[in-house]
């Protein structure tokens, strides 16, 4: 073997499936496909009166990286508004090397993806779906 | 005499490369095959001793270029058992299908029907959808059997007197299933429909006797058939080419141009507007000649022995499932599989870390993925230069993915 993309932390995030499923009565939903690889992500959210996420659930038909990212995102999204989610995305972008800086947890787990450019979108697809839900 | 795979491998310089400390186990031939020295040499000879535009120049380099380009057309024609003037060089297989959809399609009328199948590559679906939007033709679809073959038992029900064309994959780029062409042609003739085959996955496995198949159009890609990128082939019966209007307009495809009226050159020039992909076509000619030099009875037996080794090995790994024919009969060395609990992209990524190149995903065949309710598969596609070490490295990688990712 020549590299270690699938490090334990990424595998653990995917297996945790934090937030996997559907919400019974979502305020909004967002859905994104990656036409290149076929990954599909749907994110349901409910919002409080200040535009902050009070509940989140995701359905991922995609790879382990996409599942791990959706799981990580779901674990820290509650209580955040649109700007707060954008801040989380910066952490994911830092982890995969698209932005400078040190990524905060839990997205630091994705630093092994940095050298696999073809997989960057797998990490970002849940953010795209959530952004659609918040827009 | 058994197939000398080592002698074949020596002709492909990339197979001797060591990348990040790993040998190259290239099993993504269905996406793009590797290129032998004779093809590289042919392109280099053109680029270094005969580079010029074709057809119109009177200088020596132009004459060399034109001769090499037309010789390539002869090589491709010989490979397919047809006349050189029936060979149109295009930008690729997709471009060839689009040419037919646009040009032959313009001869169709609203309400005419085109029959496709559920396992087609998007390049044999979308051009016809574009034609449908332009001209009001109707599209029909032949479903696929559980083992990933086009279900030709349903053909009689799907054919109508308005069916003008049946366009199908000669070999599936996902399941490896070989089409029963004679059966398709027999049914097509019963309603007067033409038959087009997408030969992208068949052409890399040896010469084809197109006249014996009785079809009307054939398309394949250079880069999947050991040739360069940027060139493909459309073959069509000469009477059809004669009847078809141009696809692209420009230089080379005209008879006479005035601002009042322009006349068209005869085929194949009519369909080769502008400067064609000269170097790539010359390379593809060399690739076709190289393929004709192989003993394909032995080469095919070798490829299918690899398929058997792969299938046997996968079956020993818990949770694997093959999407496609289980039998070696009427199939080619394209094998898709699933590993329960592990996404195909993660299988492919793991295999890459073992030096094994495969393709994962929907393979530009989303209707087929929908048919089996799949997000994708991991696809192993072989060529005559593959050997047991490639298959064994792949199996080791799949075992690792099974152990670590679920």
Written account of the structure:
The complex is a heterodimer of chains A (135) and B (406). In chain A, helix 2 (64-77) packs across helix 4 and helix 3 (82-95) runs antiparallel to helix 4 (120-134). Helices cover 39% and strands 17% of the residues of chain A. With 135 residues, chain A is an alpha+beta fold. Chain A contains 4 helices and 3 strands; from the N terminus they run H-E-E-E-H-H-H. Chain A has one domain (8-134): Sufe protein. Chain: A (Alpha-Beta Complex), CATH 3.90.1010. The model of chain A has no long low-confidence stretch (mean pLDDT 94). A 3-stranded antiparallel sheet of chain A has the order 1-2-3. Chain B is α/β, with parallel strands linked by helices. Chain B has 2 domains: 5-31 and 295-404, Aspartate Aminotransferase, domain 1 (Alpha-Beta Complex), CATH 3.90.1150; 39-292, Type I PLP-dependent aspartate aminotransferase-like (Major domain) (Aspartate Aminotransferase, domain 2, 3-Layer(aba) Sandwich), CATH 3.40.640.10. Helices cover 37% and strands 17% of the residues of chain B. Chain B contains 14 helices and 17 strands. Chain B has a 7-stranded mixed sheet, sandwiched between helices. In chain B, helix 12 crosses helix 14. The longest helix of chain B is centred in the first third of the chain and has 21 residues, at 60-80.
Q: What is the count of DSSP helices of chain B, taking H or I runs of 4+ residues?
A: 14
Which two protein chains have the largest interface (Cβ within 8 Å of the partner's Cβ), and how many residues from each? A-B, 21 and 23 residues
**Proper CATH architecture of chain A:** Alpha-Beta Complex
Query: Over all CA atoms, what is the radius of gyration of chain A?
Result: 14 Å
Instruction: Give the termini separation of chain A.
Output: 43 Å
In total, the number of strands of chain B is 17
Number of domains of chain B: 2
Low-confidence stretches of chain A: none
Task: Output the strand order for the largest sheet of chain B.
Answer: 4-10-9-8-7-5-6
% residues in beta strands of chain B: 15-25%
Shape of chain A: globular
Largest sheet of chain A: 3 strands, antiparallel
Q: Pairing-aware structural class of the strands and helices of chain B?
A: alpha/beta
Radius of gyration of chain B: 22 Å
Report the CATH C-level class of the largest domain in chain B: Alpha Beta
DSSP helix fraction of chain A? 25-40%
Roughly how many Å apart are the termini of chain B? 44 Å
The overall strand count of chain A is 3
| Overall pLDDT metric of chain A | 94
């Amino acid at each position: 073997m020549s590299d270690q993309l699938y490090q334990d932390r990424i595998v653990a995030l995917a297996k945790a499936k934090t937030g996997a499923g559907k919400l019974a009565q979502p305020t909004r939903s967002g859905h994104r496909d990656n036409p290149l690889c076929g990954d599909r992500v749907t994110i349901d959210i409910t919002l409080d009166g200040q535009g902050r996420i009070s509940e989140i659930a995701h359905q991922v038909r995609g790879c382990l990286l996409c599942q791990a990212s959706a799981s990580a995102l779901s674990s820290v999204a509650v209580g955040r508004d649109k700007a707060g989610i954008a801040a989380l995305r910066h952490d994911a972008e830092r982890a995969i090397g698209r932005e400078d800086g040190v990524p905060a947890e839990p997205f630091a787990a994705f630093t092994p993806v940095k050298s696999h450019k073809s997989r960057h979108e797998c990490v970002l697809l849940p953010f795209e779906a959530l952004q659609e839900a918040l827009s | 005499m058994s197939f000398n795979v080592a002698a074949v491998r020596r002709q492909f310089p990339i197979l001797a490369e060591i990348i990040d400390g790993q040998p190259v186990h290239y099993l993504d031939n269905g996406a793009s095959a590797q290129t032998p020295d004779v093809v590289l040499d042919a392109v280099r000879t053109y680029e270094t001793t005969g580079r010029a535009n074709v057809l119109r120049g009177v200088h020596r380099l132009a004459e060399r270029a034109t001769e090499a380009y037309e010789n390539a057309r002869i090589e491709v024609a010989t490979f397919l058992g047809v006349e050189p003037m029936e060979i149109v060089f295009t930008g690729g297989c997709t471009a060839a299908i689009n040419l037919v959809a646009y040009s032959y399609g313009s001869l169709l009328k609203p309400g005419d029907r085109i029959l496709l199948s559920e396992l087609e590559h998007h390049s044999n679906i979308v051009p016809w959808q574009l034609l449908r939007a332009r001209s009001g033709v109707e599209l029909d679809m032949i479903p696929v059997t559980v083992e990933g073959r086009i279900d030709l038992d349903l053909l009689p029900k799907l054919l109508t007197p308005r069916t003008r064309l049946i366009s199908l994959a000669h070999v599936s780029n996902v399941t490896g299933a070989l089409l029963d062409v004679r059966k398709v042609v027999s049914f097509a003739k019963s309603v007067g429909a033409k038959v087009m085959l997408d030969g992208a996955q068949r052409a890399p496995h040896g010469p084809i006797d197109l006249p014996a198949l009785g079809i009307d159009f054939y398309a394949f890609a250079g880069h999947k058939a050991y040739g360069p990128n940027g060139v493909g082939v459309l073959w069509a019966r000469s009477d059809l080419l004669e009847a078809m209007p141009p696809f692209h307009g420009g230089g080379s495809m005209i008879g006479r141009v005035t601002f009042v009226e322009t006349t068209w050159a005869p085929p194949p020039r009519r369909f080769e507007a502008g400067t064609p992909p000269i170097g790539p076509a010359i390379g593809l000619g060399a690739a076709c000649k190289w393929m004709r030099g192989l003993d394909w009875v032995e080469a095919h037996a070798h490829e299918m022995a690899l398929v058997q080794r792969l299938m046997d090995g996968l079956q020993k790994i818990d949770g694997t499932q093959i999407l496609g024919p289980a039998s070696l009969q009427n199939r080619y060395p394209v094998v898709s599989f699933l590993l329960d609990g592990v996404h195909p992209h993660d299988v492919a990524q793991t295999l890459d870390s073992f030096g094994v190149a495969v393709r994962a995903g929907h393979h530009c065949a989303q209707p087929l993925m929908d048919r089996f309710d799949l997000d994708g598969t991991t696809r192993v596609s072989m060529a005559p230069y593959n050997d047991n070490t490639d298959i064994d490295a792949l199996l080791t990688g799949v075992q690792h993915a099974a152990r670590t990712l679920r």
